[in-house]
Structure formats: C-alpha cells, structure tokens
Design goal:
Strand order of the largest sheet: 1-2
CATH topology: Arc Repressor Mutant, subunit A
Helix content: 55-70%
Number of domains: 1
Radius of gyration: 12 Å
CATH class: Mainly Alpha
Structural class: mainly alpha
Number of strands: 2
Number of helices: 3
Amino acid sequence: MVGHGVPYLTERRERIVQRIVQCIREWITEHGEAPTVVETGQTVGLRSRASVHEQLVVSAKRGFASGRGLT
C-alpha cells in the first residue's frame, strides 16, 4: 500500500485503471451517463465483473473516480 490506503499498482494494473477511466469518460461523453460494470468490462477487455469492480475501487482510492463520477 502507498500512503492513505492508496494501493501500489503494477504497470499492467495501472494501464487497466487508466483504460477504465478513459472508457468511462468517453462513454459519458457519448451516452450522457456512465457505463455499467459489464459495459466497462466489455470495452476494456475484462470478463469478470468482480475484476472491473476492483479496478473501480482502486480508481476511487487514487482519486480518478468516485461513486459520483470522475474527478
């Protein structure tokens, strides 16, 4: 863990988090609302909803996203 509960990410996981954040931003721009967890996973190539959820939690902890939207 890196201070304040922010996890250290491998390069691979960092890229996944960045792809998810980008996916959400683009989806909101195109559709006017955030994608579902399933839609996010399909867009970034993750099959497991649990994996997508985990990456969303990491995004929130790192300040990229929250339950209220992207920051």
